[in-house]
Amino acid sequence: MVKTKYEQLAIDIKNEIRSGFYSENEKIPSLREIQSIKSCSLTTAKEAYRILEEEGYIYVQNKSGYYVQKNISSLILGPQNEFYDTVEADDRIQQIMNTVMDPKLISFGAAIPSETYLPIHELNNAFKKALLHKEIFRYGDLQGNLHLREWLAKRNSMFGYRVSSNQIQITAGCTEAITYSLMAVTEPGDTVIVPSPIYVGLFQILETLKLKVVEIPYRSKEGISVTEFEKLVKRHKPKVFLFASNFNNPNGILFSDETKQRLANLSFQYGIHLVEDDIYGDLYFEGTRPKPLVSFFPHTNNGPKSFLCSSFSKTLSPGLRMGWVVTKNGVHSVSKIARAFKIAENHPTQICVLEFLKRQTYERHLKFLRSEYKKLSKETMELLITHSDGNLKITKPDGGFVLWIESALDGDKLLLEAKKIGMAIAPGSLFGLSKHWNHFFRLNVSVGQSSKIREKLILFANRFQKNGNRKKTF
User: In a 10 Å sphere around its CB, with 0-12 CB exposed, 13-18 middle and 19+ buried, how is residue 78 labelled?
Assistant: First the structure.
């Protein structure tokens, strides 16, 4: 996309701030001075400074001039709120995912739970019982099995989001739930605001639906800057906010309730629909099950809609393909879209899940998963930091089962080098449209900590030691 003169000038000054040419809280040239330095018109200078001020790079001090923000270091650590009028992710993602999903490799790259942590025996028994139900050979309820929706409604109410069974649509996994939700409130050409980094599969959905994208970076202390969010909303007027507030994949970040409340209020104020990916919400490490952001949203019949999307893929089995959308004011739109693609959901699988849930083992199973994933995350972090001589920077997750890791090496090249020792990682370039995440990668800890896995991780971690200290190399 061709940049205007003032947009390009703003980018040039941003780069100068990022490089340290202008320091934190330092006064920058006046409008007249920058007009002379950059050989531009006064109007161009004014518009460029407006952008820089909106995006938090500079502030104006009365009767003194323009200054670099005092906390600029936190702003320049993430993607720079880029706008993308097209998303072209599918081919790039597919090429990398072919390696990540290679069955010959130990898959630290795909966020798929190991069978070790899935209730395989109990699910087998549940399937056997499901086959005794005569109704599994007929079409089921178009909105999904009523008893399953009642169970989901009751469970949502337990963590602070009270809904009825009529406000739930069963889907074939969380990705389908997100897709239907976006289709219910957008048209091609609409703009969606998404945090960065975020789950790679969302870019394929956004590309297919021909939606424009604004990236807003996660900030380490607050998840998302509410001030930054409002500025972007005013500037780009997005139709939808698409996000994961509970243990985002890949960085495992949890928004505080205060941040959730403020983002919900702002979204409602500006008429922005919410689509929340809550697939990791049950896998918290501390405290109690966090509320979804949509539970803080003021719902009205004629106001913006909210959609809470999840599935059993990360807790029971990815192969079940059992997901759902919970929405207080949009179920009719979602159900109408679902019926356009299929006459009913997978009836036998829904009955199987119900048979499993009847045994009341789900909460006990979740307690086991939370304990195991917390321990595995801690052990893997310690192993990687120790054997890399501390040369890896790992974001400590609040939940889930993946680690987000920064290194001095390019993630795409690391993918190829890891393959040489029989393991796959997910390079950071998958998780954003900008190039900011090229020196990051994601690891799945649910593969466990066997002696073989530890050996692979140690060999991989040694790659990040300084040359003189390496014990092993690829």
Answer: buried
Q: Where are the beta strands (DSSP E) in 56-209?
A: 58-61, 65-68, 83-84, 106-107, 168-171, 191-196
3-class DSSP state for residue 471?
Answer: coil
The pLDDT of 259-269, averaged and rounded, is 96
* Spatial separation of the C-alpha atoms in residues 454 and 376, rounded to whole Å: 11
128: its two tokens = 């056997």
Separation between Cα atoms, residue 82 and residue 437, nearest integer Å: 14
**Digit-coded pLDDT (tens) for 303-343:** 999 999 999 999 999 999 999 999 999 999 999 999 999 88
Q: What share of the chain is helix, strand, coil (3-state, %, to 5)?
A: 45, 15, 40
What does the angle CA 278 – CA 283 – CA 289 come to, to the nearest 5 degrees? 75
Cβ-contact 424, 110 below 8 angstroms = yes
Best CA proximity match to 30, nearest among 66, 74, 70: 66
Tokens of 35: 């007009």
* Residue 144: both structure tokens together: 């999904």
Structural domains of the chain ordered from first start:
5-76 (1.10.10.10), 93-114+364-469 (3.90.1150.10), 116-362 (3.40.640.10)
In 3D, which of 462, 460, 384, 450 has the Cα closest to residue 422? 460
> What is the arithmetic mean of pLDDT over 81-102?
71
Please tell me the total number of residues recorded for the chain in this structure. Answer: 474
DSSP code of residue 216: E
- Residues 423 and 458: their CA atoms lie apart, in Å, by 12
Q: Select from 186, 190, 231 the least CA-distant residue to 81.
A: 231
CB atoms within 10 A of CB 37: 10
How many helical (H) and strand (E) elements, i.e. helices and strands, does the chain have?
16, 16
Residues 320, 353 contacting (CB under 8 angstroms): yes
Name the β-bridge partners of 193. Answer: 214, 241
Beta bridge partners of 443: 403
